[in-house]
Design a protein that fits this description.
Distance between the termini: 57 Å
Number of strands: 0
Shape: elongated
Strand content: under 5%
Helix content: over 70%
Order of helices and strands: HHHHHHH
Structural class: mainly alpha
Largest sheet: none
Length: 168
């Protein structure tokens, strides 16, 4: 009985969920899942609904309204949630070591790469125009130069990363 009911209602549920999802702020699959759960709960307590297609349409709309209310009440974080490990000494020491290793590798880069990468790592997040002006190069050559410098940096850091990982 349940398998027949599910097979019969599945196409209708998919269509109804897809129709209601955009206005509800939910994914169609989430609405489908919520309605299937409601149907299973109903089957356990009251048995099948007398008008399954009508019940299903009402259930989808009800879930869509619930989703809209929830979406309206949710507020984004002002900032990213704090990293729980950010304050522990081990985490701070490892982060400082990674930062030192990166800065040391940047200083070993050839040509004007150290200045370019330092500019890219600047805390005030300069634009390409600002970096090009600071380095005295054209803005159009900054992208290829950046790629070349980051490739060099990657080659410098790869053996160090592999050696640290091998210590186990």
């Amino acid at each position: 009985m349940t398998d027949d009911l599910v097979a019969t209602l599945r196409p209708l549920l998919i269509a109804e969920a897809r129709a209601e999802a955009p206005a509800s702020g939910a994914e169609p699959g989430d609405l489908e899942q919520a309605v299937w759960l409601r149907l299973l709960e109903r089957l356990d307590s009251d048995g099948p609904p007398p008008d399954p297609p009508g019940w299903l349409r009402r259930a989808v709309r009800s879930e869509a309204r619930r989703s809209r209310r929830t979406t309206r009440l949710e507020r984004p974080y002002e900032n990213e949630p704090a990293d729980e490990n950010a304050g522990d000494p081990e985490h701070l020491a490892l982060a400082a070591a990674r930062h030192r290793a990166l800065r040391e590798a940047v200083r070993r880069l050839p040509g004007r790469c150290p200045r370019l990468v330092e500019a890219l790592l600047a805390p005030h997040d300069p634009t390409y125009r600002e970096i090009a002006g600071e380095l005295g190069i054209s803005q159009g050559s900054l992208g290829p130069e950046r790629s070349r410098c980051l490739g060099c940096l990657r080659r410098l850091l790869t053996p160090e990363v592999a050696a640290r990982g091998a210590r186990g």
